[in-house]
Design goal:
Helix content: 40-55%
Number of helices: 18
Shape: globular
Structural class: alpha/beta
Largest sheet: 7 strands, parallel
Length: 431
């Protein structure tokens, strides 16, 4: 390791001390918020680094934030399990929805814990108990005290699928000393794009430890047809037009319902499958639909979708792939409000034409690929969304062309997974 890179790990220790002090001062508010992020299978003491290990095999540790990142990391998790069969994989998440998604996807084949609060003592305790041979952080999950604890224990650290939006960079530049100290403890950054790599380097990431590998999100399974569950549900719906609005947020659902009303002016039998991003909003969205005069059926209650049902509320977890497979068109939320968008690739992988709003900062690289391939249509308002729905519903051949274009774009941009695994091989002591 070059001398200037070694120095980076100790460049601004005071910044981490100030950060830790701020965490202690904010701890009542942080603890109150995380108290709600809980599932019965994981005791709350995990937030303090108090974990009980279920396997004595050498461990690999992957940290992801929430349910969307779990889904994006799924190919990596499956590949790590196959590539290192002598190791036990541990996945940590910040949110309860992420925890539930890990459990539903991997059925106990990996261990799950909540990531601890990033206090110095808590981070040290967690790392001392876990003792992973390799720590992998997904995207922008950079916790200064956890990184410092890994560094002290001489545990190699990788950041994979590393992304940093222009907006996030502006925020991090305000705390550049802290970020430089944290990034100096990373052994390898696998960046999604050259732009992401350059943004990390502006914060202090060493060029010699950075590789542009592409986006892991393109390494997903391409479906050759709808799943049996999707086909069954679609059969029950009959030949009516069906579209889905997935991962929606507050302030966006209202616009979705306006667009749906516009669509139903031309196609009265059209059905909207509405899937809010956060489960705590399910009941509020149901009330919103009913107040708007929609005839509602809720999936969580196994309610029958009748011919006069106008909105089917997907208020369950882990079924988004199935619901996408039912739709003729898919709108991906977090994009008509300033959230930054969500996973555009999941519907595209099923050959479904994708629509979104303009706020796609979190998926700008993915959006660019789909946009260039004509697999993504962007709309700026509820009125524009309604017009796009009407146009595409009336043109089955254009829907087929856009769906195939999206699938082809995904296949053409795959390969980041293998490049990431090759880089991780070099960090493991046993490799």
């Amino acid at each position: 390791m070059a001398k200037h890179e070694t120095a980076a790990t100790q460049r601004h220790p005071w910044a981490r001390w100030l950060y830790s002090l701020a965490l202690y001062l904010l701890s009542p508010m942080l603890w109150w918020r995380l108290w709600r992020e809980w599932v019965p299978t994981n005791p709350r003491r995990e937030r303090l680094g108090l974990i009980s290990l279920s396997s004595q095999r050498p461990r690999l540790w992957l940290h992801v934030a929430s349910v969307g990142e779990v889904q994006a990391a799924r190919p990596l998790i499956e590949s790590l399990r196959k590539r290192y069969p002598d190791h036990h994989l541990v996945v940590t998440t910040m949110t309860a929805t992420g925890a539930e998604r890990v459990t539903s996807l991997f059925k106990g084949e990996v261990s799950h814990y909540f990531v601890p609060l990033d206090f110095p003592g808590t981070a040290r305790r967690f790392i001392a108990r876990l003792q992973p041979e390799l720590a992998i952080f997904f995207e922008t999950e950079l916790w200064p005290n956890l990184l410092h604890a890994c560094h002290r224990q001489k545990i190699p650290v990788a950041v994979v699928n590393g992304r940093l939006s222009t907006k996030a960079l502006r925020g991090y530049l305000r705390i550049r000393a802290l970020m430089a100290d944290a990034l100096g403890k990373i052994d390898w950054l696998a960046a999604k794009s050259a732009q992401d790599a350059e943004r990390f380097q502006r914060l202090g990431m060493a060029v010699s430890k950075t590789t542009v590998v592409g986006s892991l999100k393109f390494d997903i399974s391409l479906s050759n047809g709808a799943s049996p569950d999707s086909e069954h549900l679609r059969t029950t719906l009959g030949p009516r037009p069906v579209w889905i609005a997935a991962s929606t947020h507050s302030g966006e659902d209202e616009q979705i319902l306006v667009a749906h009303a516009r669509l139903r002016e031309v196609y009265p039998s059209a059905l909207l499958i509405l899937v809010p991003r956060h489960p705590q909003r399910f009941d509020d969205v149901a009330v919103l639909c009913q107040r708007g005069g929609e005839t509602l059926a809720r999936r969580s209650r196994n309610e029958t979708i009748r011919t006069d049902t106008t909105v089917y509320l997907g208020d369950t977890m882990g079924e988004l792939t199935t619901l996408y497979g039912v739709a003729d068109l898919a709108f991906v939320g977090g994009s008509l409000v300033p959230i930054g968008g969500h996973n555009l690739l999941e519907p595209a992988a099923q050959g479904i034409p994708v629509l979104s709003g303009p706020a796609l900062a979190n998926f700008e690289d993915v959006a660019a690929v789909l946009r260039d391939a004509c697999g993504l249509a962007e709309v700026a308002s509820a009125q524009a969304l309604g017009d796009a729905l009407i146009t595409l519903m009336g043109d089955p051949e254009e829907r087929r062309r856009r769906g195939e274009a999206g699938r082809a774009a995904i296949a053409a941009n795959a390969g980041a997974l293998q490049r990431t695994l090759t880089g991780l091989d070099r960090l493991l002591p046993s490799k």
